Amino acid sequence: MLIPVILSGGSGTRLWPVSREAFPKPFMKLGGELSLLQRTLSRCLPLADGKRVAIVTNKEYLFKTREEVDALPASRGIACTQLLEPTGRNTAPAIAMAALWAEHVAPGATLLVLPADHLIPDEAAFQAVARNAASIAQDGSLVLFGIQPTAPETGFGYIEAGDAVEGTDARRVRRFVEKPDAARAAEFLQAGNFVWNSGMFCFTARAFLAALEAHAPDVLAQAQATWAASSAAANDERVALDAAAFAASRDVSIDYAVMEKARDVVVLRSTFGWSDIGSWKAVAEQFVPDADGNTTVGEAMFVGSRNTHVQSDDRLIAAVGVDNLLVVDTPDALLVASKDSSQQVKEIVTRLKLRGHESTRLHRTVARPWGTYTVLQEDTRFKIKRIEVKPGQTLSLQMHHHRSEHWIVVSGTAKVTCDDRTFLVAANESTYIPIGTRHRLENPGVMDLVMIEVQCGDYLGEDDIVRFEDKYGRTG
């Protein structure tokens, strides 16, 4: 049985301001109808001969991930399990948990391990290589997908391929090389036996666990402790990994923990188009340029500009007399950068985090299990939000220490609990929630509930919430 395992974590700091902690890179759509996560699911689900797939992700992305899966028609009939990490611990512990889960639900299964945020347009070519890799993995080999280099790229790690594996088109891995400088990358391209390290793998769960036992026994032992402590281990939809046990795992990649040490590691040279979408420059390369090399997502106008990429959510961007720029506009943050410096965007995120800036975590519009909210305006002692609650959904029973709230219903009907009273608020009506009052908002109808919330108080942070009851399992 072949089980795709999708690694869907990380904040994608090089793709700020679109990618943020609460809305990371796998959820980005890049101008298309499907997110990167959905595209990954789309190309690997035909390979899931046991109708199973696992997604390893942070517990904070549980509901958004579920929405992404449910919105993809190809996922119908597929058992999708989310392995929920309480905190990030890199790829080795994540894949170890997936391997233990696979041995629990389908002993002897082969795992196809894929990052959620890569772009591979030729799905048929990818699937052919994946089936080949699964066949090779049956002898206990750990199979890597190596990408045929097309340029002396300095942003990728490289794999040097050695001797051919008899009876296959795979080659033994001679060595791994970290991201090289331009001169070494040119040498690798000229040598002809180097490939890019794609971060995609195929092996049996048992072979990987055995490799962990041989080369990173501490990672395996902690994964086993985490599995034993995770109470939802048999649940088909979600496995909530024990927070204390998983946090004690060593933060280490699969390459360092296993691949650079194990003997049965082979690489398949792959020629299908591939991008890890590791920068805005890489994003721009996915679009067809105009005669001057300009690319755009959203509404843009170019005058005397060349080789410039513009992305805008909801307003016109005009670029006059510029060259080799990246312009990415969101409602609360604007990025302007040289394409040649696109890898340095992560430094902006680092500095913003040191300042505690909200734009590293949240967009103006924030997804919640029950719907969304959008911050319309904010200043000292007040914040105005547009709140949209999906039919039949309910916010938590909660209380605020520092703010009161005024709710005005725009469309739909709100069911409001305020201390010991429960009442309905129709369109063009309003209600008031005083500081310290236990309250809850529900949408009892069959259409979206849209309302405006005006907060007033001396502290308006999202962490000023005491939850007493919550159908989505959130606490605090």
Describe the structure in brief.
This protein has 476 residues and is α/β, with parallel strands linked by helices. The chain is 22% helix and 33% strand. A six-stranded antiparallel sheet has the order 17-18-19-26-21-24, with no helix packed on it. The protein has a five-stranded mixed beta barrel with strand order 5-8-6-7-10.
How is this structure best described in words?
This protein starts with a strand and ends in a 7-residue tail after the last strand. It has 3 domains: 2-270, Spore Coat Polysaccharide Biosynthesis Protein SpsA, Chain A (Alpha-Beta Complex); 280-345, no CATH class; 365-469, Jelly Rolls. α3 (91-105) crosses α7 (217-229) and α6 packs across α7 (217-229). With 476 residues, it is of the alpha/beta class. The protein is globular and about 75 Å long. The protein has 11 helices and 27 strands. The strands form 6 sheets. The protein has a 6-stranded antiparallel beta sheet with strand order 17-18-19-26-21-24, with no helix packed on it. A 5-stranded mixed barrel has the order 5-8-6-7-10. The protein has a 4-stranded mixed beta sheet with strand order 11-13-15-16. The model has no long low-confidence stretch (mean pLDDT 94).
Low-confidence stretches: none
Using only C-alpha atoms, the radius of gyration works out to: 24 Å
Average pLDDT taken over every residue: 94
CATH C-level category of the largest domain: Alpha Beta
Estimate nothing, just give the exact number of structural domains. 3
CATH architecture of the largest domain: Alpha-Beta Complex
Helix content: 10-25%
Characterize the largest beta sheet: strand count, sense, and whether it forms a barrel: 6 strands, antiparallel
| Multimerization state | single chain
Enumerate the strands of the largest sheet in spatial order, edge to edge or round the barrel.
Answer: 17-18-19-26-21-24
- What is the number of beta strands? 27
CATH topology of the largest domain: Spore Coat Polysaccharide Biosynthesis Protein SpsA, Chain A
Give the structural class.
alpha/beta
Sheet-strand content, in percent, reads: 25-35%
